[in-house]
Amino acid sequence: MHKPSLPVVFLAVLCLAGCQGVDSPTVSGISPARQPYHAGIAGWSVQSRPLMYRVYGNGEDVVLLMAGIHGSEAAGVPLLERLGQELMNNPKLLAGRTVVILPQVNPDGVKAGKRRNANGVDLNRNFPADNFDAIKGNGEEPLSQPESRAVLKQIERYTPSRIVTYHQPLSCVDYDGEGAQQIAEAMGEHTDLPVKRLGGRPGSLGSYFGIDRGIPCITFELPKNASKMNAQELWDSYGQATLAAVVYPQPLEVQTTESGK
Ligand SMILES: [Zn+2]
């Protein structure tokens, strides 16, 4: 039997140790009044970086949010980290629902500041949608990349009723799938960005999960200058629209706390 090499074993042990330190509520010192969460690794990138996920709440209604599938559009990454803080500080937001967050789906691309993964594949063209197109850069076949497989696995595991992904720089709330327009409009009430349907791209997450599988998908296209904002500025600009998707179909009423200071 083939044994994993020493560096691989070392990396895995290092990561698991690190994950405990970072993500265990008891280790990180979160007070009992705050809502705990659990964290794990959805999969591994081409360059062996972990695709972390966190799960908040345990209610029946599941919403899944992810960012950084295009590594050069990373403003959603700190925004979703900030969302996690809000969920811990406002347990009411979790009443009857589960929130699954994948803050960084393409960690190699984010690290390199590049749209595609380390194999040069656009992960948001690599899903097995009817309109998948095997041109160069989309992957030779659907799900050829470990990151797109990890996303699929998480979505099938948690079966969300809606999915929100963060991109840049098209400055709009885009949507795919039946029922997605209403969610986009609920979000649009809390942001200046227009609600606009851009249309399903070949092999995209919206094409596959939204159009083919009927899970409403929202593509929150932040503006280019969102990359220059810190987490608090991002939250001030796009946090309420994000929460509107989290609590949908309830109208957003809960005001966030001062936790971000
Ligand atoms: Zn994008």
Polypeptide structure, described:
With 261 residues, this protein is of the alpha/beta class. It has 2 domains: 1-30; 35-247, Aminopeptidase, CATH 3.40.630.10. The protein has helices at residues 6-23, 76-89, 107-112, 146-158, 180-188, 205-212, 231-247; strands at 37-44, 50-56, 61-67, 97-102, 162-167, 170-176, 217-223. The protein has a 7-stranded mixed β-sheet, with helices on both faces. Zinc ion (ZN) binds next to loops.
Number of strands: 7
Give the averaged pLDDT, no decimals: 88
Helix count, DSSP H or I runs of 4 or more residues? 7
**Main sheet, how many strands, which sense, barrel?**
7 strands, mixed
> In angstroms, what separates the terminal alpha carbons?
53 Å
- CATH overall fold name of the largest domain: Aminopeptidase
Which H/E pattern describes the elements?
A: HEEEHEHHEEHHEH
Q: Provide the CATH architecture of the largest domain.
A: 3-Layer(aba) Sandwich
Features of the shown structure:
7-stranded mixed β-sheet, binds zinc ion, disordered N terminus, alpha/beta, 7 helices, Aminopeptidase, 261 residues, 7 strands
Task: Write the topology of this structure.
Blueprint: H1 6-23, E1 37-44, E2 50-56, E3 61-67, H2 76-89, E4 97-102, H3 107-112, H4 146-158, E5 162-167, E6 170-176, H5 180-188, H6 205-212, E7 217-223, H7 231-247
Parallel strand pairs: 3-4, 3-5, 5-7
Antiparallel strand pairs: 1-2, 2-4, 6-7
The protein binds zinc ion.
